[in-house]
C-alpha cells in the first residue's frame, strides 16, 4: 500500500541529546513537510522540501535540522538547541501544491 | 496579523444543521486552499481542496473561495455527530510553502 510512515510513534529525549524522527513515503511525491503541533494549536511548519537535496526553513526552524538525500525520505533531527521539544510532530508529502498526505505522527517528550 | 486565521471556536451545532467554518489569509500570492479534519490525537485528513474562485461541492461539504476578499470557507450540510472534530484551513503559496490556521473545533450535538 502507498503511504507515509513515521517512526517511532513515541520518543523520549534526555537533556542535551539530539534525536532523529524518521519519515518515509512511497507515494512518489516530490514535496515533503515537517510540522509541529502543540496541544490545542494548529500545525506550524518547521521545514519543507520541494525536491531532493533542497529544503527551506519554515516558520519555526530554530533548533531543528533536516536532510533530503532521497526522494522517499525526509528525516528531522531535534537538536539540544530546541529547549521546548515536547510536541506532536507530523510529516506530510504531496505533489506540488496538491493536498498533503500525513503520517500518523511522532509524540516527543522530555525525560 | 496571522498569515491564516480561522473563526474562533468552539462551534456547536445541532445534528442536521449547517456548520459554517471560515478562514482568511494574508498572502495574495496564495494559490491552493485546503480543508483538513483532525480527530483528537490523530493526524489530519483531507476534506476538500479548492484552487479557483467560486464554490466546490462534494457530498455534504462545500468549499467557497473568494481571492479578492482573501477568504475561504467550508460548509457542512446535515451535520452528523461523527463530524465533531477540529477543522484546519491550509493555504499554499506558489513557492510551495504551506501555512495552517489554528483550527476550529466543531461539536455536533445529537
Quick structural summary:
The complex is a heterodimer of chains A (111) and B (110). Chain A has no helices and eleven strands. Chain A is an all-beta fold.
Structural class of chain B: mainly beta
What is the β-strand count of chain A? 11
Give the helix proportion of chain A (percent range).
Answer: under 10%
Oligomer: heterodimer
Write a structural description:
The complex is a heterodimer of chains A (111) and B (110). With 111 residues, chain A is mainly β. Helix content of chain A is 0%, strand content 50%. In chain A, the strands form two sheets. In chain A, strands 2, 4, 5, 6, 9, 10 and 11 form a seven-stranded mixed β-sheet that branches. Chain A has a four-stranded antiparallel β-sheet with strand order 1-3-8-7, with no helix packed on it. In chain A, a hairpin with a 5-residue loop joins β4 (31-37) and β5. Chain A is globular and about 35 Å long. Chain B has strands at residues 4-6, 11-14, 19-25, 30-38, 45-50, 54-58, 61-66, 71-76, 85-93, 98-100, 104-109. In chain B, the strands form two sheets. In chain B, strands 2, 4, 5, 9, 10 and 11 form a six-stranded mixed β-sheet that branches. A five-stranded antiparallel β-sheet of chain B has the order 1-3-8-7-6, with no helix packed on it. Chain B is mainly β and 110 residues long. Helix content of chain B is 0%, strand content 58%. Chain B has no helices and eleven strands. At the A-B interface, β4, β5 and β10 of A face β4, β5, β9 and β10 of B.
What are the defining features of this structure?
heterodimer; A: about 110 residues; mainly beta; seven-stranded mixed beta sheet; four-stranded antiparallel beta sheet; about 50% strand; globular; B: about 110 residues; six-stranded mixed beta sheet; five-stranded antiparallel beta sheet; 11 strands
